[in-house]
Amino acid sequence: MARAPDAGDVEELARAQRHLEALLRCSEPLHALTDSASVARVAAEQGATLIPGIECAVAMRDPDDRTVLRIAGGAGPTFTARIGRTVTLPGTLAERVLATNEPVESRNAAVESPVAASMPEPPDTARLVPLLVSEPGAQTVSLGVIGYYRHNRDGFLPEERRLLDEYGSRVAGALHRARLLEGATRTARRLRAGVDVAIDLGSSLDPRQVIRRLIERIATAVDAHRTSFGRVDGEVVVIEDSHAIGAEPVARGSTWRIDDIPLLRAAVYDRRPVQIGVGAPRDAPTVALMGRMQHTLVMPLLSERQTVAVLSVSRLQDVAFDEEALSVLQQIGIIAVLALRNARLFEARRDFMNMAAHELRTPLTVLNGYVSMLRDGTFGPPSERWTPPLDMVAGKIGELSRLVDDLLIGARLERDAMSSNPQDVDLVGLVHAAVERARPRAAMLRGHVEVAIEAGMLPVRADPDDLGRVLDNLINNALTYSDGTPWVRLTARRRGGMAQVAVADRGRGIAEELHERVFEQFYRIEDPQAGYNLGTGLGLYISRGLAELQGGSLQVERSSPGEGSVFVLELPLLGD
């Protein structure tokens, strides 16, 4: 006969229920966070509420120094004040945890841990749990430890240990997810910076304009107070241009002997970036080069394995350039060398844009692959809480992919290398399909897209994909350049022997003198009052080129500031 549950059983079940509720309550806030710093901070705050009377700290491994941990989150009187500090591993309880990848508990932490002993009021009991994750193609990796502390020697009960260990596992998963998203975001940001620079530099064949745009872009990308471009000319570097904010720029035409300045020697001869900051010894030429700047980084620009120029970026504050800034500079540097070479050859802009787009496809493919792997559970069953951030990253990857596609199509149109696959299609059906594609974005903007058909079928011979891209561009432009609630109306009509689609909006409108300029490659209407809209300035250029490739045309029928616009796509009717 089964034993009836007694009071002890009921209490144990109630305690287990409380622990499960605490685990769910404390884990829930972690799912909405997308950066590791916030995850560590919130994880410590929530961890301190798992069991009454405990403190909690999250310490992360330093990627550059495996002998230390950095306290990234802390909750409780002991650890809140220690956030941001580093802890040397040798001799600590954390060292034992990271060596075995197993939790370690001590009821005499004040004696067994030098870290605890150095605190004004050290905790007596500590349980440290490794933050373990599995990475593709690697063994289990520890990101750091999460520690739970008590100011008594009671120790933790078995069910409390299970609760604390399970929470540590969930914190590790949240940190790993945040790091993946941060990596994807950084890569997407670098790609976007590369695309922006490629577009900006490739839009001019004047080397002086290319250099000016380059140093201005770099100053913004890496938060530099001074950016200079110097051409390597034999044994000297000649400053061709310099841009400064809150400081004096380096004089154009000034020359610096490479052998006199260690920064330049390392960059030019060793072909590697080098940085000097506060506290580093400086000789007289280096002082003259840096002036009031606290940190200066010099990046070589290489062509055929030779240093042809150097980029110098400097900051007035005591803030060094980190690895992220270095990655951005390296990517921009590669693009800059190509842009300058093309500008000086005066005819190779198309090759540059085509190359840049192809080169950007590879990292985009990698990013898209990792997002797909996260979604399909390759790294473990994905949490439902992952869906929004993964959708966000996938959307940004899609935006970059479309930018790359625009670059490729623009380059092919410019050199008359765009292929087409003409078919007999109904323009009315293509209009309806484009409207359906636009409805999700219109709904997000709380806008309205409608269709008016003034004729039956409008048969034309054209590439349906090309026409779809033209219609998508026109609708998206109408949605984007609307100050109020977007409204777009597509009218399909017959005019003599021509099929027409008129795309009307109530947006900002275009001044009459700019009606033709908006179809120029890379041309954008800048309106400081309306704000900056994302885009490459390629949409209408590509749309007109594709329309003409089908034997049609694309024109501004009417548009004026504040009155909206009407663009008309016209194609010959089949058989007329």
The CATH homologous superfamily of the largest domain is termed GAF domain
Q: Largest sheet, order of strands side by side?
A: 3-2-1-6-5-4
Strand content: 15-25%
Distance between the termini: 93 Å
How many helices? Answer: 15
Q: Which architecture of the largest domain per CATH? A: 2-Layer Sandwich
Instruction: Categorize the overall geometry.
Output: flat
Quick one: biggest sheet?
6 strands, antiparallel
Number of domains: 3
Radius of gyration: 31 Å
Low-pLDDT stretches: none
Q: Could you report the average pLDDT, rounded to the nearest whole number?
A: 84
Query: Could you name the CATH class of the largest domain?
Result: Alpha Beta
CATH fold name of the largest domain: Beta-Lactamase
According to DSSP, the number of beta strands is 19
The secondary structure category is alpha+beta
Helix content: 40-55%
